[in-house]
Please model this.
Amino acid sequence: MKLRRDVFQAIADPTRRTIISLVALQALTPTAIAENFDYSRQTISKHIQILTECEILEQEQRGREIYCQLNPQGMKEIAEFIEPFRNMWDDRFNKLETLMKSKIHEHKKK
Model:
């Protein structure tokens, strides 16, 4: 049985979250990713390895280069965890907006 790293521990690191943001826009080589940081290429490679083990990133060989790209399926576990909280906050903000509009309407009547 192959153990997979915990996706939530992986995204807890700000460097890895930045890497996710970078490759969400376009597939990048590890060298191109490393150019965005003041860390060694080896350090960035370790972060990429962790994200790949969590299945958040996929690596694809294109000719002589390896490209890292976001794996949307890998983000699904995170999205499913966050969704109930997003729904709860959306509901609370909608109730707050309704309350504020009613108070503004009452104030205009006075």
